[in-house]
Design goal:
The chain is built from 8 helices and 17 strands. It is of the alpha/beta class.
Length: about 350
């Protein structure tokens, strides 16, 4: 097939590229430049030039053409602005889901048109076609599985994608990279959001939303115990950055309208169950909500699943109960639903 491969400069996408070459496909690699050096109001040290240099080295090694596509404006419009607006509302944004939906498999699809039969990436996930339906399935490596970040896609997007690493463990991918002599074989995995570079998330938010002093209130007593610089710097379950002695203190609630952050030293007490939440704005990967309302759910990327029930309302809302407590349920996060190894889709925690 004629395949477009998104290359990040990391080991995963490099091995995906090599595996597809071994299968004999006609390949073109693409690097998406999202770093906004001039658009941000401060300068950060983003490693995009280093990432690109590794992508170029890999393509030279494999003799595969590499094209650079700038998507800075689209990335700002479709991802960065969403992060700022969600933070302003006191919510916890999930930019990676939007980056996949709107940029990697949105803007990029539009830019390359119908020239390629498939688009490949180094994501750890699997796609299985049954009849006319494309199912998103968890990867072999449960720790690296990235279906959480892919749960906002559509059937049309899934139909065009292939994930060569879905049946590999990360350790196997590292071994293959070394075996093939790829320049990325010992490169560390990247962390965080690229447009931030080495700039702290709090500094980024401060540059757009500023600081607004408010009260830190102990939720049990209602007593004011300190000051904070703005509700948008805090998320539910946060422990670091509160700046009070006598803790540990945890963020348990926020009053955005009155700029109040409620904190507690008794975060794990029996009366704070934190085992239910409302979800809206569902995206079902197979275009219809599941018939089985006894499912599994992830509230963040990682290995941890909860058994869950979901009760749907006539409106686009659902009430989710999980079988254990989770101390970090925060509005704005995505809840991603599963039936065994099949990712069903997602909704936003409200």
């Amino acid at each position: 097939m004629k395949v477009a491969v998104l290359l990040s400069g990391g080991v995963d996408s490099s091995v995906a590229l090599k595996l597809l070459q071994e299968e004999g496909h006609d390949l073109t690699a693409f690097y998406l430049k999202v770093w906004m050096e001039d658009e941000l109001s401060f300068k950060g040290d983003c490693p995009w030039k280093e990432d690109l240099s590794y992508a170029q080295k890999v393509c030279r090694k494999l003799n595969i053409p590499l094209k650079i596509i700038p998507v800075q404006k689209e990335y700002w419009d479709k991802v960065v602005s969403y992060v700022v607006e969600e933070a302003k509302k006191g919510r916890t944004p999930s930019p990676d889901l939007f980056c996949n939906k709107r940029i990697k498999f949105g803007v990029f699809f539009d830019k390359i048109g119908d020239e390629f039969q498939k688009i490949a990436t180094g994501h750890y996930a699997r796609i299985e076609k049954r009849g006319d339906i494309f199912y998103l399935k968890r990867a072999k490596d449960s720790f690296k599985d990235q279906t959480y970040f892919l749960s906002h896609l559509s059937q049309d997007q899934l139909s065009r994608l292939i994930f060569p690493l879905g049946n590999f463990l990360k350790s196997e991918v590292r071994s293959l990279a070394k075996k093939y002599g790829l320049p990325t074989y010992d490169r560390k995995d990247s962390q965080g959001i690229c447009f931030l570079g080495k700039v702290e998330y709090s500094d980024f938010i401060a540059s757009y939303l500023g600081e607004k002093e408010g009260d830190l209130i102990e939720i049990e007593s209602g007593q004011k115990v300190g000051k904070h610089k703005g509700v948008w710097f805090y998320t539910i379950g946060q422990r670091r950055g509160i700046g009070l002695s006598g803790g540990p203190w945890y963020v348990v609630s926020k009053d955005v309208k009155n700029n109040i952050v409620y904190i507690s030293k008794n975060y794990f007490s029996a009366d704070k169950k934190r085992n239910s939440f409302w979800v809206s704005n569902f995206n079902w990967l197979c275009d219809k909500r599941p018939l089985n309302e006894n499912l599994q759910v992830k509230i963040r990327h990682g290995k941890e699943f909860y058994n869950a029930t979901i009760e749907f309302e006539k409106t686009d809302k659902g009430f989710v109960k999980i079988d254990k407590r989770d101390q970090g349920i925060a509005a704005g996060q995505f809840a991603v639903f599963y039936d065994g190894d099949i990712c069903l889709g997602c909704g936003v925690i409200t």
